[in-house]
Every structure is written in C-alpha cells, then in structure tokens.
C-alpha cells in the first residue's frame, strides 16, 4: 500500500508540474507585442511596484470598471497556482521542510519563472504575481505543517514511504 500511495503522490505531482508548465509558458500571451524590441517589451510588460496590479484589480472590482472575471481570475489564480507547491516540495524534498529554506527556494524559483516569462515573452514580470504566488505557496506549506495534515497524510502509516 505504501508504494501505491507514493506512486499516486508522484503521478499527481507530475500532472501538477505539467499543468503549471502549460499555464506559465505555453499560453498565447505576449504575441501581441512581438514587434517590440526586448527592452521595449520589458519596459511595457513589467511591474516592479508592489501592490500596483493588486490595487488596480481591487479598485476595478469595487467600482465595476472591469469585467469581474479578470481581477478574480488573476488574483485568485495567482494565489492558488503555487499553493500545491507548498505541499509537494517539502514532502518530496526533505531539505525544503524548514520554513526559511522553503521560502528562499520558492522566492528563487518564482523569480526564475517571472524572468523566463519575460524573456520568452510568454508573460510579464509582475511583482504582484510574485507576491500572490509566494503567499499561496506559504499557505500550502502551512497546510502541510498542520497537525491535521500531518495525521492524515504524513503521519499516516501508508505515507511513511515518504520518510527516508
């Protein structure tokens, strides 16, 4: 049974990574600005002002100046996108089981993702996306660290296969 549980976790992690790859890099974003030079693209598609986009979306939700789907999908989507990473990484990589190491690992990973999106023109560099992704991952990490999750999953004899 331990092997089956481990296989299910591994397969679900692979599917999650595959979905993440599609959402982050294989969309059609960026094609509208393909005639810009790289520097122009970086300038027009980057946001390094914390909470600028988040604030814009909240204002649009309050005053109704934007279709509600856009801010909700962006805010909730960016928050939820990396939440599973907060659960998977510490389970599969024991060295990332400490909060500080997890936080630094996620910051590094998300910074690389944002830069790759910018350079490949498959998205933008938005510090607000970064903030929401980090918060989601930290919530996932917090869920993984709860006693309930530990009892249900990590403390479960069927999941002892994850212990080394």
Would you give an account of this structure?
The chain is globular. 69% of the residues lie in helices and 2% in strands. Helix 6 runs antiparallel to helix 7. The chain is mainly alpha-helical and 164 residues long. It starts with a helix and ends in a 10-residue tail after the last helix. The chain has one domain. The longest helix has 24 residues. The model has no long low-confidence stretch (mean pLDDT 87). A two-stranded parallel sheet has the order 1-2. Keywords: Membrane, Transmembrane, Transmembrane helix. This is VanZ family protein. Pfam families: VanZ. InterPro entries: Teicoplanin_resist-assoc (IPR053150), VanZ-like (IPR006976).
How are the SSEs ordered, and which strands pair?
Blueprint: H1 2-25, H2 38-45, E1 46-47, H3 52-63, H4 69-81, H5 85-92, H6 99-119, E2 125-126, H7 127-145, H8 147-154
Parallel strand pairs: 1-2
Helix pairs in contact: 3-4, 4-7, 5-7, 6-7
* Termini separation: 17 Å
Output the radius of gyration. Answer: 18 Å
Poorly predicted runs of 5 or more residues: none
The major pleated sheet works out as:
2 strands, parallel
Estimate the strand proportion.
under 5%
């Amino acid at each position: 049974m331990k092997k089956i549980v481990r296989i299910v976790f591994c397969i679900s992690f692979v599917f999650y990574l595959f979905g993440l790859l599609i959402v982050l890099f294989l969309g059609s974003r960026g094609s509208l600005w393909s005639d810009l030079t790289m520097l122009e693209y970086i300038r027009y598609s980057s946001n390094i002002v914390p909470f600028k986009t988040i604030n814009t979306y909240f204002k649009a939700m309050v005053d109704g100046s934007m279709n509600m789907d856009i801010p909700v999908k962006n805010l909730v989507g960016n928050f939820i996108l990396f939440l599973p990473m907060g659960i998977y990484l510490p389970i599969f990589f024991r060295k990332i089981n400490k909060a500080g190491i997890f936080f630094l690992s996620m910051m590094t990973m998300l910074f690389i993702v944002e830069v790759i999106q910018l350079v490949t023109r498959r998205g933008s560099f938005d510090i607000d996306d970064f903030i929401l992704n980090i918060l989601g991952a930290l919530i996932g990490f917090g869920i993984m660290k709860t006693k309930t999750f530990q009892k249900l999953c990590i403390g479960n004899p069927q999941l002892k296969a994850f212990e080394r």
